[in-house]
Amino acid sequence: MKILLASASPRRKWLLEEAGYSVRCEVSGADELEDDSLAPAALALENASRKAGIVSVRFPDELVIAADTVVAMDGSFYGKPSDMDDAFRMISELSGKTHEVVTGVVIHFPGGEKQDFAESSLVTFRPLGPDEIRAYLASIHPLDKAGAYAAQDDDGRIIERIEGSVTNVIGLPLERLGEILGWRN
Question: What is the pTM of this model?
Fold first, then answer.
């Protein structure tokens, strides 16, 4: 199955390719909404819908998938950090606590049919000291990651436990997406 991914995310592309899909990326250029008055799932779905809508208009005969991942804890959202100080703040606030990772996925099928869903996972960080956080951030590229961390590269460095879909935390819940796409093959 060929997928047009409305994203520049190398992690989402990698996940889809590892699952056996043929993937082409097309960046939407959509403005992402930042509204902490929305529930995490509503925000993630709104942003994914914006991306999918723009790309599917350009490519109406292709299967378009868009996703947006939101990291949330105690009513606050942790998007992509603005700089390394912001990344340090995020990891410091998440340290030793459990937060929610929600990915909204919007699928536009050729012919105009749409389907969407939001997947939620809980992630618990180990308690981390300032030096551990700095070393961690120096070893990854946190500025393009919601919450300033990379679950796929963690190997237990900061994540103590994930409850739910690991691929959701990486950026695309493949289990649920596969269920939806599977019956259409």
Answer: 0.92
